[in-house]
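Troubleshooting: if your tokenizer reports a length mismatch, compare against these two reference records.
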Amino acid sequence: MKRALAQGVLIVIVIVVAFVMMGVIRGMKPEVKAVASERRSVPVVVRRAQPGAHPVTVRGLGEVKPVHQLRVTSEVNGRVVERSDGLAPGGLLHRGDPLIRIDARDVSAQVASQRAALEQASVALADERGRKSVAEYEWQGRSDALADHAREFALRDVHVRSAQANVEAAREQFGRARRDLGRTMVRAPFDAMVTDATVELGQVVTTQTQLATLVAIDRYWVEIAVPVSQLVHLEIPGVNSTGLRGSPARVIHDAGAGVIIEREGYVERLLGQVDARGRMARLLVAVPDPLGTGLYGQVPKVSDAPAAAVPAPRLPLLLGSSVRVELAGQPLADTTEVPRVALVDDDKVWLVVDGKLTLRAIEVVWRSATTVLARGLAAGEAVVTTPLATPTEGMQVTIEGDSPELIAANQPPAKKL
């Protein structure tokens, strides 16, 4: 009994000690006061809207092709006795440069024969005129009784007209023979580059023989396809411009290894039908002095070459090259340049107003690869350019800075040296 009583007392003591310790521990717990939570502000980068007149650039791809291409043939028959050294593929010729010379002896003989025929016809005309004078003397006072046709025959008027016609025919034949003599020397009709030469020294040529193929080098063409909707931004001769030159163009050929060949050109004409595959309008862009000789008229440059490009003004723009063309369009008034990354649903942007996000609908009037031109933004409004995961109307934000490459976008860029 004593052992059971002692165990019961021990249990009670343990329970009492446990309760006492729990009270002590509870008394040592720090008191936590409720604190109001602060809403976290999201940092963003913005661009300040600056409405103004912004130029647009219409871009297209095309292939360089000749404006004038001529297959040269001879106008007389004969053997080639001289051939120019410049008559070879890639050779450059000036207008009037000789290509070949044909043996002129046969043509010279024809000239002599026609000269003799002309002399004989002239003598025959003089003889008929003398006969006419004799006939008029013999028929004095009696020709009035004759009928008209009989009078002309009796007074030899018909014979004189026939002799005059023979003289004119002989003179034309003589002139033709002399022209043929000059045609024994075949010359370049314009400044040209030889793309093909098939005639050889000693070859007998006829008027059907093709001698060479020449391409005019004063200008080339580049045919490009652009959306029909973008034509309103360009000046096109014969369509919306009375001048001979339309919107300026820059033709760019990436030759590889960092070498860029550039030429300035202009829109020359609009072709009369759309592209069969893309249903796009087709423009012809003229490129003066494509070989870079400096002998032909140039047009003002559209803009400077990219900083990373290695300019190569002395390299020629070759036929058949695939090129990029940038056409300078008319500026769009009262527009703001906005980066594409700032667009929401393609026609809205987030603005920062009093430190909070506000969604604004805009009118996009032009699109390029990285930016758009839009209306509906006031000067100084902050357009968010930072991509946001889950933006909401009224979200608290903090402006960390402006997009440096887009500030004052409507001001002209600094000239690159």
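Reference record two:
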Amino acid sequence: MKAEELDELFDSGEDISEHLDLTTAKRIGTQPKKVNVDFPEWIVNALDIEAKKIGVTRQSIIKVWIAERLKAEQTHKAS
């Protein structure tokens, strides 16, 4: 199948999954990348308290909160 044909199916709302090899599919931009950030002690303590409340690690709450904020910013810019 040519790319143009696949594009037409997708654009018309057809299910194109039968035309894809999902065993080798990869999401772009999802590879972890280390970033070091220095926070004041009071922020670290506050993060630990919030993380403990919901039963996650400090790293997890930081990632979720930053992702939420970035998504909100993107939504705000789009409107």
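Descriptive notes for reference record two:
- Helices lie at 3-11, 41-54, 58-78.
- The mean pLDDT is 93.
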